[in-house]
Design brief:
About 55% of the residues lie in helices and about 0% in strands. The protein is mostly helical. Helix 1 runs antiparallel to helix 2.
Length: about 100
Amino acid sequence: MAPAVDGFEKSLGEGGFPWKSGQELSRLRKQFAEFHHLEAAMEPEGFHGQLREYQREGLAWLQFLQEYGFGGVLADDMGLGKTVQILARIQTEKASKRMPRL
């Protein structure tokens, strides 16, 4: 994955597109080199709900996006519990003190 990031950075620089700094890309490169797979996340402390296994995987995906500084979308068929996953994500942020105003 790291060589792909290098090539992407070079092509963006040639096109004059804004992109993350070299330091940020180095951090991302290191994170990708050490990444193996996502593990389902457990409900955060203080969460008053229960997630199914696939919802824990969705929560892990949202946490992955936050950790790597990416934006993303959580989407599936209607009625599969996206709302409860987002509530668990908010509680995760609150419990970690990254969202202190809630």
